[in-house]
From TrEMBL:
Organism (species): Streptomyces galbus
PANTHER family: CONSERVED PROTEIN, HYPOTHETICAL FUSION PROTEIN
Protein name: VOC family protein
Residues annotated as domain VOC: 133-244
C-alpha cells in the first residue's frame, strides 16, 4: 500500500478567486478536462493542473479559519534570469499579490510576496542549483522536523534527496517539486495554511492505518462531505486521505 500526492491545497475564504490568482501567475489550467485521467477523484474544492513532473494538482478549499501567523508551508518559485524574476514578481503584484516582510532583510536575493489571502511565497533568484530542473514550483518549503521529513518520505514513497543538519527534502522519483523541511524550532500554527491531499493506490482505510503506523494521528472518526479522512503528521500538520469515486 502507498499514497500518491494528489493536491497541495490552500485553505481559502474565496477559493475561486485564489485559484484565479495562482492560475494567472503560473499559467495553469483547470483540472477535470476530458484528458485528465484523475478527474474521477473526490475533491471538494477547485483544482488546477500544476503541470509539474511530480504529478500533483493545486487545490483550493473553502475554510472559515482565520490566518493568525506566517504559514508553515510556502512555495519557492524559480526564475531563469533576473528579467524572469522581475516579470514574475510584477505579474504577482498585478494579479493582487503584495510584498511581504518575513525578516528576509534588504539584501535578500529572493523576493517574498503574499497572495491575495496572505499566503506567503518566494520568488527565488536565478541560478539556484538545489532547485534546478524542479519546474516553476521549485519547492514546497515547510517548517518541520527531521522526523517529519522521514515520515513523508515513507508515506509518499519519495526518496530523501537532502538530509543534513536537521534539514530534509524529498522528491518524487519522476522529478519536479521538492518538499523541504527546515528543522526545529517549529513556528506557531497559523490557523490557515497549505495542506497535502493524498489518494491511496487501493483501499482508503488500509492506507489510513498504514499512515497511522508510520506516526500519523487520526483527527476525526467522521469523514468529510467528500469522504476524506483527516490526519495529522508527526509535527501536527493536518492532511487528508481522499476517497476515490466509483466509476
Amino acid at each position: 500500500m502507498s499514497s500518491r500526492l494528489f493536491a497541495l491545497s490552500f485553505d481559502a475564504q474565496e477559493p475561486e478567486r485564489l485559484a484565479r490568482f495562482w492560475a494567472g501567475l503560473l499559467n495553469l489550467e483547470a483540472a477535470g478536462a476530458p484528458h485528465d485521467e484523475t478527474a474521477d477523484e473526490a475533491y471538494d474544492g477547485v483544482l488546477l493542473l500544476s503541470g509539474n513532473d511530480a504529478g500533483y494538482r493545486l487545490g483550493f478549499r473553502s475554510s472559515p479559519a482565520r490566518k493568525t501567523d506566517q504559514n508553515r508551508l510556502h512555495f519557492d518559485l524559480t526564475s531563469s534570469s533576473p528579467d524572469d524574476q522581475r516579470e514574475l514578481v510584477a505579474r504577482a503584484l498585478d494579479l493582487g499579490g503584495r510584498h511581504c516582510d518575513v525578516g528576509q532583510g534588504p539584501d535578500a536575493s529572493h523576493v517574498v510576496l503574499a497572495d491575495p489571502e496572505g499566503n506567503e511565497f518566494c520568488v527565488i533568484e536565478p541560478g539556484n542549483s538545489f532547485l534546478a530542473g524542479c519546474g516553476r514550483i521549485g519547492a514546497l518549503a515547510c517548517d518541520g522536523s527531521r522526523a517529519v521529513g522521514y515520515f513523508w518520505s515513507e508515506a509518499l514513497g519519495w526518496p530523501l534527496v537532502w538530509d543534513q543538519d536537521e534539514e530534509t527534502a524529498v522528491q518524487s522519483p519522476d522529478g519536479g517539486t521538492k518538499i523541504t523541511w527546515g528543522g526545529p524550532p517549529l513556528m506557531p500554527d497559523p490557523g490557515r495554511d497549505l495542506h497535502l491531499d493524498l489518494t491511496p493506490d487501493d483501499d482508503q482505510e488500509a492506507e489510513v492505518e498504514r499512515l497511522v503506523a508510520l506516526g500519523a494521528k487520526r483527527l476525526d472518526v467522521a469523514r468529510g462531505g467528500d469522504g476524506a479522512v483527516l490526519l495529522a503528521d508527526p509535527d501536527g500538520n493536518t492532511f487528508r486521505v481522499l476517497a476515490r469515486r466509483r466509476r
